[in-house]
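Entry type: protein chain
Record version: 2
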Amino acid sequence: MDIKTIEQQIFTVANNVDFDSAAVEVFNYQYRTNPVYNQYVNYLGISPERVESVHKIPFLPIQFFKTHTVLSGCGIEDCPECFTSSGTTGQNTSRHYVKDPEIYFRSLEIGFRQFYGSPDNYTILALLPSYLERKGSSLIVMAQRLMQLSGQKEEGFFLYDFNALQQRINQEIASGKKVLLIGVTFALLDFAEQYPQHYGDNVIIMETGGMKGRKKEIIRQEVHQILTSQLGVNAIHSEYGMTELLSQAYSSGGGLYRETSTMKIIIRDSTDPLSTTPDTTAGCINVIDLANIHSCSFIETQDLGIRHQDGTFEVLGRNDHSDIRGCNLMYAG
């Protein structure tokens, strides 16, 4: 199957059968055209002819994005965009080269509409100081695109001017618009502490990104409890994505996520990266991201998670010291 046909298949997924069929097609394409992934699959001793379902697809450890150029059927010179992860001085950062930003935008819009409806129903604001202060953030590109789709004319990004943010939110509420505020965790906590409000159903707070070394790490439940209490909302929404992906999952509260149509989460055994776990058993998160067609769609992350029987999944923590053979389930909860 040629690449254009595969791209069309990705965006017409209607059920699990469609998804699994598309995933196997993407695997075959990336095995043929992605040198890094090809070598890794061969290293594992896996024959591509025997990969007939998603449960037999090998997942590339996410660390490879820090040490290799992970591309399928193209080179760096073909990629107009490069997403980079944040990192401290001297630390290797991930580099995700994007050949076709329109595929990213299409995946983003489809996923957003599945969860929230049309973007033009919202005024979309972003409180993302740590991301605005560096180049290459996929989250900034995501927020910019959503703002464009919402049709808003005014700039929606805020750094540390919490007073201006509060005024803008109140202005939008007064004009009858619903606000979606996407914020990095540490900045949302500062905003909530300095400008407590009672927004009710007028504002959706979407938390993402963590503390970024700016505050003491606390568990997600405590973060959400603080934000719901001080901002007067019923629940805190969350977005689950990363530099190395082009698709996102969303939570409308309680830290329970659902995937979009171009994404699937598989929980793998903590001691064997080639084995999966049953529902309700904690393990490490593998991601299938069909939109990542020109890079690698099968990512073994360093996140710990659990799949619930209702189809939602939960991110339990992160293991920053996992090696290529799997992850450690020791985490602070």
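Comment: The domain at 3-78+262-318 is CATH 2.30.38.10 (Luciferase; domain 3).
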